[in-house]
């Protein structure tokens, strides 16, 4: 029986849960700002902003109190070590901060600063806390997977220079780190030019450990009024930190919760400047434009820094630096001719200020132009100062270097990049099967149907509601007939109830996150009272794997995959709708140290669990996550969370998904149609036309919305949506090839203008259109109501052709492209070859052996090139050579189209080629066809490996003269060449 105190806590929790649910179902669609901190309400952010203000106000006299001891410096095998000394109170011993600068073989550099007293455990924790004494130093164990080989050729400069240490590193020693001793700072140079500066403005601040000195209570004088609430937060007289507000050093309250802070103040902060760079990108997730705005107030600027603190922010607002569900602290700075980047590897709550300082040249300085420096200020609540620097010089170089550290996108199963149908919730297994049948009845393709939390028995994961999901195996067998899949939601909160083996097991094995006292933490989420699995604990992850075995998760099948939601973690009655920061994880690390990693540990565990569901069944997992960190791309896809069925949210989705791509996590999408609210039929249609360009493409809706499956829209909307879906399926070879490129190089799957045209200054901030992979396909989704045309920005002088009717657009600048409701604005850049599959099917799995069409789009020089990657779309056999990777080239000089192998043979190559031997190219379309072909009726085809009589053969050829404003085009019909073999089509023969 519960004690009265326990019962009181339960009723309080129930009240908070009901309040949270009432907020969720409120008809007023707006974020509850009072639930989330601003910088002024976050003690360490406010302190460090004040520190920056003080430095700026006293700039002529300001000196950073951090000095590098030159006698401590040592460079060995590519790693420089030393001690930074922080000056504090007069006559006090300086604080010792161990410094490590690692110069990596990749050309990147890593700067790490620790705190000696905490490192040695030479501190005392308050409140008899069980928390670790060190600064959190395990983020790299989760985020990093490679790229850490040291550049042993890194060398000190031969020239001695007082107050500086210079290290040359990278290829041919063209990169340089200039380390200033007093005050401590670093400049990173490439080819003699400075691109990144650390502590240039003197904002480095590591809040060192100090004991809390309790003041004796002062006796009140006669007649003195009672102290007012808040006066207890006065500064301590004997503190060496003069003039600093100590009110949030030792504890901090927000929203009725108090954070105990057993280690006291421990924030880390650093200013990082990019001289000569006006545009910075990255640090998702925020509902903002691609080029980051300034954050220090003013017209069109934000007044708060960008916040990285994974949070459940439903009904989030747009054009805001407010935190959302995930955090990737990776930023790129870009200008014509150069891209550089930094990765701030810290998993604690982090704020980033962005300021752009414009300089005007002296009128007497001939030839010197004005320029802009972007100055950023990074502030984290705890942990190490641990920063990677990437010196480019191209966007591709920076993103690939980051990917080599944190891992590239997992190669998905082919179904995962097709269309997903979801809502909260399909109400029964019969409902699911009915939706499946209706997609077939209306000839609408889809691959995956999803189940939200209502499929479970009383919100208990790994169960099925016995009244509504009576026969889940029968349901999945029906899906499997069309090679379709099921995705079911499983969240990290486990219902605390009787007669539930999962929670009983979790408790008995002590696998839950702990509260500050070391007891299992109890909070509230969808099931009510819940415990959270602690996937930082290897034992918890190992246990988690067992739950997905088919004999444990009864009713699941090989075509069942998983959705991890609420893994920020979302806690309805917690501070800022998440866990208290003084909770404890495995190893007694506080939650404050690891918060932004939490979601990734959970979806990593789920990925590994799916991988091992059955011995001998090795299939690529599919996991969707809402919360993420650097490295999440290795095991999950993501979506942008609880958006609204409004035109503005459709518009915002494009830069949000683009930003994910350039930040190393390209398998991203947004809820098509909007999660909250009911879209008009026009908005729904336009959202599908935009959604086909999301790498992760899913329609989703809230439980209170009207049903909106595509077949319910009615004519002409259903037909238009169906055509959009078929375009996605037609171009699946393009998407799969782009995913392979992301998997092997880290390249974004959809790409912004600056990435494709890095020297086009007018297009650096363009974020409402996108390129698909390396194909030259340029899309501009319609995102405004009542639109019948769009303005597409073209950055180069290549000809661009309308995908559907070959209308020509050429010349740098904006071009008006017709976009009535039934039209999807999509252009093809000259110089590319686009592989596609033209036969409409009901799912991607049914397309596996379909023939290909190659669309050859000639560039201004008459040439074109493209590639195709294929594997079985299911297993890991591609790692043993079971794939086809071809490069197609059209050469005007030889008047021929060729296919050559660019793959590497492995032990399973021959078997896969045999499996695919009958898959052929059934058509070649040439856009911008050469006039010399006019009147030609056949071409000559030759193929390797064919019988002698078939090695050279004729294929039918048709030439079409373009109407006014449209390109000439030609068709080679059924050249009968295998997609996995080498061949040549000779247009002169």
From TrEMBL:
Query: Gene3D superfamilies, alphabetically?
Result: Glycosidases (3.20.20.80), glycosyl hydrolase (family 31) (2.60.40.1760), Golgi alpha-mannosidase II (2.60.40.1180)
Comp. bias regions, Basic and acidic residues: 207-241
Segments carrying the region annotation (Disordered) are 207-267
Where in the numbering of this chain does the Glycosyl hydrolase family 31 C-terminal domain appear? 746-834
Q: Tell me its EC number(s), please.
A: 3.2.1.20
One of the protein's GO biological processes: N-glycan processing
Transmembrane stretches, by residue range? Answer: none
Does Cell inner membrane show up as a keyword for this record? Answer: no
Major subcellular location class: endoplasmic reticulum
Q: Which Pfam families match?
A: DUF5110 (PF17137), Gal_mutarotas_2 (PF13802), Glyco_hydro_31_2nd (PF01055), Glyco_hydro_31_3rd (PF21365)
Coiled-coil regions, chain positions: none
Q: Which UniProt keywords apply?
A: Endoplasmic reticulum, Glycoprotein, Glycosidase, Hydrolase, Signal
Q: Which reaction does it catalyse?
A: Hydrolysis of terminal, non-reducing (1->4)-linked alpha-D-glucose residues with release of alpha-D-glucose
Domain Glycoside hydrolase family 31 N-terminal: start-end pairs: 98-353
> Taking every annotated instance into account, which residue ranges of this chain make up the domain Glycoside hydrolase family 31 TIM barrel?
409-738
* Pathway note: Glycan metabolism; N-glycan metabolism
- Signal sequence span is 1-30
**GO molecular function annotation:** alpha-1,4-glucosidase activity; carbohydrate binding
The family annotation for this protein states: Belongs to the glycosyl hydrolase 31 family.
Name of protein: alpha-glucosidase
Source organism per entry reads Delitschia confertaspora ATCC 74209
């Amino acid at each position: 029986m519960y004690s009265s105190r326990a019962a009181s806590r339960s009723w309080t929790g129930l009240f908070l849960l009901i309040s949270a649910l009432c907020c969720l179902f409120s008809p007023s669609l707006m974020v509850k700002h009072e639930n989330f901190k601003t910088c002024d309400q976050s003690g360490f952010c406010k302190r460090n902003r004040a520190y920056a203000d003080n430095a700026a106000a006293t700039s002529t006299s300001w000196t950073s109190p951090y000095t590098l001891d030159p006698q401590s410096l040592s460079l060995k095998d590519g790693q420089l070590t030393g001690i930074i000394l922080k000056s504090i109170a007069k006559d006090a011993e300086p604080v010792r901060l161990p410094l490590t600068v690692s110069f990596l073989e990749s050309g990147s550099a890593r700067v790490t600063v620790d705190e000696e007293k905490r490192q040695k455990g030479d501190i005392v924790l308050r409140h008899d806390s069980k928390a670790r004494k060190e600064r959190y130093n395990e983020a790299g164990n989760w985020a990093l997977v490679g790229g850490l080989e040291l550049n042993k050729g890194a060398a000190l400069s031969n020239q001695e220079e007082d107050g500086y240490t210079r290290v040359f590193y990278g290829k041919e020693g063209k990169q340089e780190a200039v380390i200033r001793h007093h005050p401590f700072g670093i400049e990173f140079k490439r080819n003699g030019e400075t691109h990144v500066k650390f502590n240039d403005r003197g904002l480095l601040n590591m809040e060192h450990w100090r004991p809390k000195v309790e003041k004796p209570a002062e006796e009140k004088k006669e007649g003195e009024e009672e102290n007012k609430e808040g006066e207890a937060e006065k500064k301590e007289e004997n503190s060496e930190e003069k003039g600093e507000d100590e009110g949030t050093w030792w504890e901090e309250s927000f929203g009725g919760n108090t954070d105990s802070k057993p280690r006291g103040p421990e924030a880390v902060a650093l200013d990082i400047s990019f001289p000569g760079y006006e545009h910075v990108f990255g640090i998702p997730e925020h509902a903002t434009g691609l080029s980051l705005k300034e954050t220090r107030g003013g017209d069109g600027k934000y007044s708060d820094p960008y916040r990285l603190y994974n949070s459940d922010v439903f009904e989030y607002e747009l054009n805001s630096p407010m935190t959302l569900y995930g955090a990737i602290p990776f930023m790129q700075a870009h200008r014509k001719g150069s891209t550089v980047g930094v990765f701030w590897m810290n998993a604690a709550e982090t704020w980033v200020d962005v300021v752009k300082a414009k300089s005007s040249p002296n009128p007497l300085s001939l030839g010197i132009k004005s320029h802009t420096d972007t100055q950023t200020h990074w502030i984290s609540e705890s942990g190490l100062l641990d920063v990677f620097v990437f010196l480019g010089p191209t966007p591709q170089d920076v993103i690939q270097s980051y990917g080599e550290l944190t891992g590239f996108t997992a190669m998905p199963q082919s179904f995962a990049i097709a269309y997903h149908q979801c809502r909260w919730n399909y109400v029964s297994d019969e409902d699911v099967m009915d939706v499946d049948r209706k997609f077939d009845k209306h000839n609408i393709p889809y691959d995956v149907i999803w189940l939200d939390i209502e499929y479970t028995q009383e919100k208990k994961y790994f169960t099925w509601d016995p009244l509504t999901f009576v026969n889940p195996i029968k349901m999945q067998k029906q899906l499997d007939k069309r090679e379709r899949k099921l995705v079911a939601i499983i969240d990290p909160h486990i219902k605390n109830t009787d007669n539930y083996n999962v929670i009983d097991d979790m408790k008995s094995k002590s696998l839950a996150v702990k509260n500050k006292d070391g007891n299992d933490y109890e909070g509230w989420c969808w099931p009510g009272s819940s415990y959270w699995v602690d996937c930082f604990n290897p034992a918890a992850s190992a246990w988690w794997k067992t739950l997905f075995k088919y004999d444990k998760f009864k009713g699941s099948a090989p075509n069942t995959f998983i959705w991890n939601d609420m893994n920020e973690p979302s806690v309805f009655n917690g501070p800022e709708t998440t866990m208290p920061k003084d909770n404890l994880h495995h190893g007694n690390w506080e939650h404050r140290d690891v918060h932004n990693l939490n979601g990734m540990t959970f979806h990593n565990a789920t990925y590994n669990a799916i991988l091992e569901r059955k011995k001998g069944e090795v299939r690529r997992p599919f996991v969707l996550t809402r919360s993420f960190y650097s490295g999440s791309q290795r095991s999950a896809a993501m979506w942008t969370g609880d958006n609204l069925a409004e035109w503005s949210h459709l518009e915002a989705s494009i830069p949000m998904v683009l930003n994910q791509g350039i930040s190393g996590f390209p398998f991203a999408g947004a809820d098509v149609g909007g999660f909250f609210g009911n879209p008009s039929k026009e908005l729904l249609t336009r959202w599908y036309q935009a959604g086909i360009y999301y790498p992760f493409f899913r329609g989703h809706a809230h439980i209170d919305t009207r049903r909106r499956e595509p077949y319910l829209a009615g004519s002409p909307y259903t037909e238009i949506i169906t055509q959009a879906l078929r375009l996605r399926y037609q171009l699946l070879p393009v998407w799969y090839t782009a995913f392979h490129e992301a998997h092997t190089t880290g390249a974004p799957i959809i790409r912004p203008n600056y990435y494709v045209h890095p020297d086009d200054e007018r297009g650096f901030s363009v974020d409402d259109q996108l390129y698909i992979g390396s194909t030259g396909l340029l899309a501009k989704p319609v995102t405004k109501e009542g639109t019948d045309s769009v303005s597409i920005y073209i950055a180069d002088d290549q000809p661009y052709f309308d995908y559907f009717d070959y209308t020509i657009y050429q010349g740098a600048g904006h071009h008006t492209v017709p976009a009535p409701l039934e039209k999807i604005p999509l252009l093809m850049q000259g110089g590319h070859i686009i592989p596609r599959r033209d036969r409409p099917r009901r799912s991607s799995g049914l397309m596996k052996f379909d023939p290909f069409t190659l669309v050859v789009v000639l560039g201004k020089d008459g040439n074109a090139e493209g590639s195709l990657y294929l594997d079985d779309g299911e297993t890991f056999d591609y790692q043993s050579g079971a794939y086809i990777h071809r490069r197609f080239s059209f050469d005007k000089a030889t008047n021929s189209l060729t296919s050559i192998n660019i793959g590497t043979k492995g032990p399973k190559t021959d078997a896969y080629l045999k499996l695919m031997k009958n898959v052929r190219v059934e058509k070649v379309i040439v856009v911008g066809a050469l006039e010399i072909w006019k009147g030609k009726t056949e071409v000559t085809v030759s193929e390797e490996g064919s019988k002698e009589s078939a090695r050279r053969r004729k294929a039918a050829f048709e030439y079409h003269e373009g109407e006014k404003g449209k390109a000439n085009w030609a068709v080679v019909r059924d050249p009968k060449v295998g997609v996995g073999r080498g061949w040549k089509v000779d247009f002169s023969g």
